[in-house]
Write a structure and sequence with these properties.
mainly beta, 3 helices, disordered N terminus, five-stranded antiparallel sheet, elongated
């Protein structure tokens, strides 16, 4: 019994010695010595995608709680310039960063906008709570699709730099044919006071657009803002239009298609001069019994585009409808109006309805195109 006890203790001491010797502060490659190979290991880890040390805190040579170029410098000084010994901290800063909600598609209509930041500004606003070690960050006027299913972000923290790469997901029907500006909120917890570089890589940037990248000293400046000017869509919009279907359209009785000629596909319009455009799309085409009908309306470069959609059709037939729409947020001016139905690009030909419309003053009118094929012709 006594002999077994002595052997057990001896083995325990050997194991303890091996662990203590192997995981020494500064011995990043775990070879029981600290030398130039550890400097190389740390540089590869930080900047060249190399492997991480067995325990990340072994790389925190200066004991700051962060792993960065200062640790490389500290290790070189220790090895070759009689610098202080490595004093690795017991833990490494590992902040938790989450997407914390976002605004709806922003409306910049004069007199209706509730947002202080102009639409041509792309900004990051931040506020740091030292007591809670929490940074609240808002990406103001972030460009996304008009109707994402979810706004997402891939976030990394490395070398004192917080990098946020934004993305989006979509449902069954995919993205809409429009872009929009949103305010996206992020919460970063377990972040000690210090100086950090924050980089936000948003969507819809053009080739020469700079990222939102700035340095924030959360000790001396716990609240701040950084902005860049964007001069292309979706930034710089002074108006945000909205469109909706009026009433509950129904499949027309083929014998009663007398509002317009059977072979005519028409848009009747009425503009009130103060922002509201009422449209009636006569002899529009959808499935005989769609699950639902919906539209997406966009305004870009004086082009008003109305895209018509249906959810999965429940019947094996098509039908003619008179669709009524109300579009708000259109300032007086001359526009090109495009009304497009997803079915125009299937087995049917002819393309969308497109014409110039002068909305400088209150006006009304009608524009038609011929559709000399089914389901318009009899």
């Amino acid at each position: 019994m006594g002999r077994s006890f002595i052997i057990s203790v001896t083995l325990l001491l050997i194991i303890a010695f091996a662990v203590t010797g192997a995981y020494e502060c500064g011995d990043l490659n775990n070879d029981d010595s600290i030398n130039i190979l550890d400097v190389t290991f740390l540089i590869n880890y930080l900047y060249r995608g190399g492997p991480a040390p067995a325990y990340p805190n072994l790389a925190d040579i200066d004991g700051s709680g962060l792993i960065n170029i200062l640790d490389v410098t500290a290790l070189i000084r220790f090895l070759y310039k009689s610098g202080p010994e490595p004093v690795c901290s017991t833990s490494i800063i590992n902040p938790v960063i989450t997407v914390d909600g976002h605004s709806a598609c922003k409306n910049f209509l004069p007199g209706k906008a509730d947002f202080m930041t102009p639409s041509d500004q792309d900004c990051a606003q931040y506020s740091y709570n030292e007591a809670a070690n929490t940074l609240s960050l808002t990406h103001v006027n972030a460009g996304f699709n008009c109707c994402p299913e979810e706004i997402l972000a891939e976030v990394t923290f490395s070398n004192d730099t917080i990098t946020i790469i934004e993305s989006e997901s979509f449902g069954e029907w995919g993205p809409c044919f429009c872009l929009c500006l949103f305010d996206v909120n992020y919460t970063i917890t377990d972040l000690p006071q210090g100086e950090y570089t924050i980089v936000i890589i948003g969507l819809e940037l053009e080739g020469d657009d700079e990222y939102l990248a700035f340095t924030a000293d959360l000790g001396s400046n716990p609240v701040g803002e950084y902005c860049v000017t964007r001069d292309h869509y979706p930034w710089g919009m002074t108006t945000s239009i909205e469109g909706s279907i009026v009433g509950e359209p129904a499949c027309k009785n083929m014998t009663l298609k007398s509002d317009t000629a059977v072979e005519q596909d028409c848009i009747e319009y009425d503009y009130d001069g103060s922002g509201t455009l009422n449209l009636t799309h006569y002899n529009d085409m959808f499935n005989c019994c769609p699950e639902s009908l919906y539209i997406v309306v966009t305004l870009e470069n004086n082009v008003i585009r109305l895209d018509e959609y249906e959810s999965e059709g429940l019947c094996d037939c098509i039908c003619i409808y008179d669709m009524e729409y109300e579009i708000t947020g259109i300032l007086p001016g001359v526009y090109t109006l495009i009304v497009d139905n997803i079915s125009y690009y299937n087995e049917y030909t002819g393309g969308p309805i497109e014409f110039e419309i002068d909305l400088s003053t209150p006006t009304s009118g009608i524009f038609c195109v011929d559709r000399p094929y089914l389901p318009w012709s009899e």
